[in-house]
Amino acid sequence: MKFVDVKAEYNFYKAEIDAAVSRVLSSGQYFFGKELEKLEKNMAGPSGKSWGVGVKNATDGLQLILQYLWKPGTKIILPNFGAYPTAVAARNVTRTGAYIQYVDVDRSMTIDPNKLPDSFCGSKAILLAVNLFGNDCDFQKLATWALGKKVTLVVDRAQSAGSASEPWGAYSVYSFYPTKPLASMGDGGMITGNDPAAEKYLRQARFYGQDGRKKVVQAGVNSRMDEIQAAIVNVKFDTFQVMTSIRESIAARYLEIVQGITWRAGAAYHLFPVLFNNREKVIAEMEKRKIPYIINYEEHVNEMKQLNGCGLAHPGYRINDKILSIPCHAFMKENEIQKVEEFLNDVKGYEATE
Question: b/e map of 207-232 (b: 16 or more CB within 10 Å)?
Fold first, then answer.
């Protein structure tokens, strides 16, 4: 049993992927060609956005859109638990934790709208919401709060391509890392939005800050998603929701046994995390039965010295000592699913239900 089976995914799409890669190699156009243009349109469509801008990875995507929006004195508000690159991108833009304000997550593993600040330790703010594990945030509440506070809502969708919340947010950032719901076989990311000025900025910024005349007009970076990776994602685009449905059906079986986290309708089920008391005993049992697992994530980001911010010093709702993710991917065999179900039945007494 594998936690994620990227090889099986390749074999499923093999004929189409091989043909797409061969087509790109034969074209001689390896960057900024038809495949990336097609993917940018593909990704803009479901989110109701007018444009997509492909970049090398989601961390670059987050950093570039935050760089576009951020002005000195502006707070970036984000969850205190999740993938570290989100906080790294915010820190790289602000250069100091004084402009980063962390907020607790709730059992959905997304930012707790009831704990959003009344003030920002400053005058302006950007709300960076993260759909962790493929689970959507409570966007009704987040959007209402953002509108009332005149705050820009940016959504980190690195783990949630295809979830039900696609239209929410002024800007969205996606990841095509090989283990993600919509995956390349290398690296890649995408920013989507509606603001024409932001699109112009991002297209220049991702390629050294150059304009169409190859003249540097702003400080930029080198963040190009290549044509091979774009072609691979395009192959999967029309059918990846089928993979989401399979993960959803597996998750539904697990949820008959354990509560897991609080899932919202339309989740992408990128992973299936459970909160366990006495996690060490649960891990020992998994290792005994040869069931793979991952601990996401071992620390809350606001407790990391290099990523700390203002306001929240320590989590009000601690997760890192309980969370454990179990296999839930589209290529699991029936006997593997049953093996995980048997395990969950045997250890469900350790589940943390509060």
Answer: bbebeeeeeeeeebbebbbbbbbbbb
